[in-house]
Amino acid sequence: xxxxxxxxxxxxxxxxxxxxxxxxxxxxxxxx
Length: 32
Description:
The chain is an all-alpha fold. 91% of the residues lie in helices and 0% in strands.
């Protein structure tokens, strides 16, 4: 895998992690 490919995949994972964090924060408010 090229260096740019690794950077893109790492950027995607960081975006997914931030999305999961935001969902984890907003999800409990939906349950209430």
